[in-house]
Design a protein that fits this description.
mainly beta; four-stranded antiparallel beta sheet
């Protein structure tokens, strides 16, 4: 079955950097666009960034443009989210999600939605 497993979360201090990894199995990873999301306590899930199946294009939420970098390695079935200069406001559960790309797909016009598979999330806690 399809599995997305996030890893790399933990407790860090404000100003630290952290790289999250999304490891996929049970699917042809190179056919899927990948998105990263987060959900803080008491808040709705929030889109962070997305990357196309090839890694040739990426897009970010406004808040993520300066401090977050999304990437992927299709040879390893992995996607990554590197986060810099973390603040307590970045404390959340971080999720990756996969969207099956297909001919005529318009997912890229609105990459905040349209995902077929989700991981269970990894907790990131930033102390001040």
């Amino acid at each position: 079955q399809v599995q997305l497993v996030e890893s790399g979360g933990g407790l860090v201090q404000a100003g630290d950097s952290l790289t999250l990894t999304c490891t996929a199995s049970g699917l042809t990873f190179s056919q899927y666009g990948i998105g990263w999301f987060r959900q803080a306590p008491g808040k709705e899930r929030e889109f962070i960034a997305a990357i196309t199946w090839s890694g040739g294009a990426n897009t970010y939420a406004e808040f993520a443009k300066r401090r977050f970098v999304i990437s992927r390695d299709n040879t390893k079935n992995m996607a990554f989210l590197k986060m810099y200069d973390l603040t307590p406001d970045d404390t959340a559960i971080y999720y990756c999600a996969a969207h099956l790309s297909h001919l005529g797909d318009n997912w890229w016009s609105r990459p905040q939605v349209g995902y077929d598979h989700w991981g269970q999330g990894t907790q990131v806690t930033v102390s001040s």
